[in-house]
Design a protein that fits this description.
about 150 residues, 2 domains, 4 helices, about 10% strand, GH
């Protein structure tokens, strides 16, 4: 026995609403409601514990400007490179830059920072987590996931 759309869980109801027009165009002479219900029934998702998918939300758009940099691209003898980066961002780019992509800042053995040896630490040559946190207070941070 098939379910009506009103009896579906929220995910099945969303699926039924999306496939109903397709079923109607493929099988104009058939009972489309019955075909949709049978499709959902044989898929096995009607009885499953499901969560309603969250609508995708972009984390940036055309208004954002991003700086992409290695942690040691800007240096000063008086401070760690991540501190110098924060100083540069604040002094010259605060009014335009919204995001900072810092290329690998983890300790590494080779490969220009991409052979990570400790995923929980900041390369001490660059600074420490307090430096990354300081940058993140004023700019959104993007970091590479190196696996």
């Amino acid at each position: 026995m098939t379910q009506s759309q009103a009896e579906y869980n929220p995910v099945c109801r969303m699926l039924a609403e999306r496939i109903a027009p397709l079923v109607a165009s493929l099988y104009p002479d058939a009972d489309q409601q019955d075909l949709v219900a049978r499709f959902i029934e044989v898929s096995g998702i009607s009885e499953a514990e499901v969560e309603v998918p969250v609508e995708y939300q972009s984390h940036w758009d055309e208004r954002d400007i991003m700086v992409i940099t290695y942690g040691d691209s800007v240096i000063s003898p008086a401070e760690k490179p991540l501190q110098t980066l924060k100083t540069l961002l604040d002094k010259y780019l605060r009014d335009s830059v919204t995001m900072v992509h810092i290329l690998p800042y983890y300790p590494y053995s080779s490969d220009g920072g991409f052979a990570v040896t400790d995923y929980e630490s900041i390369n001490p040559v660059l600074g420490d987590w307090s430096d990354v946190t300081a940058i993140s207070r004023d700019y959104r941070i993007m970091a590479d996931l190196v696996i």
